[in-house]
Description:
This protein has 111 residues and is α+β, with helices and mostly antiparallel strands. It has helices at 45-56, 60-73, 83-99; strands spanning 32-38, 75-82, 105-110.
Amino acid sequence: MATDPHKTTRPTSPGDSSVLEAERVxxxxxxxxxxxxxxxxxxxMDFVVGILQNVFAMTRxxxxxxxxxxxxxxxxxCGVFTKEVADTKVAQVAEIAxxxxxxxxxxxxxx
Length: 111
């Protein structure tokens, strides 16, 4: 059962004059996922740069560096996100690539 971080401890009896103290609840950060583009021999480099600029909000220079990483090593990191954001980015890339009839693949893995 989750504890409300703003919950306070109440006195146990009507005449109790103890001070109310807030309960501390520690939260851990959400798990992060690395979004990767995979190399193929058919998707134009300019298209990959455009995807990186539009979906991942990279500058042209950043996008070109990632595109070259994909081209040279077979895969490149587009960013690290929470699971929901990573899922959305992977789906956006797949949708745009399919709409332009390119086989560009995008995956995610735990960081």
